[in-house]
Structure formats: C-alpha cells, structure tokens
Amino acid sequence: MLIYIIALAVTSLTGVLLNVYMFWKFATANTKAFSSFHKLCLCKTIPNILISSIFAFWAIPLTIFQVDMAHFSRLQNLIFSQVLGGFGYVFGPFLQVCMATNRCVLLYFPFARMKFDGLPITTLAIFACFLLANTPVFASILTNCYLVYDPPTLVFLPEREECGSTQDFLMFLLICVISLTCNSINLAIFAKLARDKMNGISETQKSKRRRRWLTMFVQSVIQDVLQLIDITNYNFVSRIIDEEWWTFIFCCLSFSMVYTLDGAVMIYFHSDASRKKSTVTNVQVSTAISSGPVKKVSVID
Fold it and tell me: Do 169 and 156 meet the contact criterion of CB atoms below 8 Å apart?
C-alpha cells in the first residue's frame, strides 16, 4: 500500500503545482489580443487544480491514517467525491469544446467577432459549461446514486452497486460525445488550414500562422485523448484483471495522472508559444531600428 500512496501523492502534488503555475501564468498575463481563448485556458486549469488537490490533500491523508468510510462524515465524502467525479470531471471537457469552437469561428468567420463585440459570449459560454458540468451531480441527487471514496482501496466507486454500472456507462458515453464533438471541430479547423490560400500575406507569415494553429490543434487533440483514455481505463481496462495493483493503476492513478499530464501539456505548448512570440517581437524591433517602421499585418490567431 505504501508504494501506491507514494505514487499517487507524487502524481497529484505534481498536478497541483503544474496547474497552479498555469493558472498564475494565465491570470497575470498582460495581453488583450486573445481575451476569449485566454479566459477559457484560465478556466481550464480550475478543474485540474480541484481534482489534483482533492487527491493530494483529502483522499491520500484519509488513506495514510487508515480512516474507514464508516468513521468519517458521509456528507463530506459525498461533496468531495461529486466535485471530483462529477463536476470537475466534465467541466474541463466542456471547456475544450468551447476552446475548439472559439478557434473555428475565428478561422471561418474572422469578422464575426466585430459584430458581437459588445456581448460577453465567452463568459456566457463558461457559465453554460458550469451549469452542464453540474448535471452529473444533480443526476446523483435525483437518483440517490453517489460516487464515494474508499480510503483502504484508494478508489472512488459508486455507493450503490446496482446503479453504479449505469452511472459509469452514461459518464463514458458523455465523455465520448464531448470528445467526438471537439475533435470534429478540430478537424474542420485543420481542413480549413490545409486548403486556405491565405492571400495578402507573405509565405513566412503563412507558415507561422499554420504552425501556430497546428500547435493548438495538436494540444486540443492530446487533451481530449487523455480524458477518453482515462474513462476507458476506469470502465473497461480496470476490469480485465482482478488484482489490487491493476485496479489501482487503471482506476486511481490513471484518474489523477490525467490532470497532471493535462497541466504538463498546457505548460509545454504555451511556453513554446511564448518563446516564439518573444522571438518574433525581437526580430521586428531589430528591423524597425535598422530599416524604419515595420508594416503591421493583421493575422488571426
């Protein structure tokens, strides 16, 4: 059991640190150019921090002190478990759809933003995602079918087995539908980039724009696949072998690992984007000093 606790502690604490860093980076970024996408990325770190923190600062201590489910508050268990396995688990994927939609609209309808400039569309979309993410919680309340944490096994499982399998299957279908929707939008983006002639800008700018959008596409696909792999692990892979170590890896460690990897993916892609932006800015400044004013070209990011 000790090796399980150490593995889960390292994974969840790393997830907390990575996602808190990204939250701080997005929250303190001095930029107005991509406010909608920036706001969505900021919100994406919130469920990651919540879930990683619940593992690190609540679930693991209960297991370390060998607290049985019968000896701590059921209400506390229900609240933390629903936040982790209900709201937190689907809020991120819903935001992924918004992020993909944001990029798709800007690419296919570049002037649509000007028409709806006064409307807080992104804020409304985030609020809608928040409401939708609470659907599993409301469903659990209405059906009296809750997810609970079992400290001795380090696993979140249905409180009532007779309804748990249906609940797990419906959650699996929901994640699959969200992932399919998001990746369909991303494919539409990729198709547009592949055939778009991008008239009016230089070949260098075309290459940079395609590379930037391809980076966003790859990031989104990776994040969607991570969530899909985890829900598949929980519903199917974990049942292949009836062993404690197997269940731990594919039910618990996989669950925590998703949010650590998601934070790592955001750090990798956004840090890379920042370095490229800094390099381009430096080149433009140098050119302006040696050759006079640089002509400003409008591009959609």
Answer: no
Instruction: Count CA atoms closer than 13 A to 63's CA, side-chain side.
Output: 24
Q: Is residue 292 part of a domain?
A: no
C-alpha to C-alpha distance for 262 and 19, rounded to whole angstroms: 8
Structural domain tally of the chain? Answer: 1
Contact 301/33 with Cβ under 8 angstroms?
A: yes
Q: Please give the Cα distance from 133 to 298 (Å, whole number).
A: 36
d(CA 15, CA 63): 19
What residue numbers bound the domain in which 38 lies? 2-273
Contact 168, 156 (CB under 8 A): no
**169: in domain:** yes
Nearest to 122 by CA among 145, 147, 150, 99: 99
Long-range CB contact pairs, 60-66, < 8 A, 24+: 60/5, 60/8, 60/9, 60/12, 62/149, 62/151, 63/1, 63/5, 63/151, 63/152, 63/154, 64/5, 66/151, 66/152
Q: Read off φ and ψ for residue 53, nearest 5 degrees.
A: -70, -40
The per-residue pLDDT for range 205-237, each reduced to its tens digit, is: 777 777 777 777 788 888 888 988 999 999 899
- Has residue 243 been placed in a domain? yes
Question: From the centroid of its chain, how far is CA 260?
Answer: 10
At 247, which CATH number? 1.20.1070.10
List pLDDT tens digits, range 111-121: 666 666 667 88
Tokens of 58: 């609540």
Place of tokens 């079992």: 150
Strand duo 147-150 + 155-158: pairing: antiparallel
Residue 60: how many CB atoms within 10 A of its CB?
A: 21
Q: What is the pTM of this model?
A: 0.82
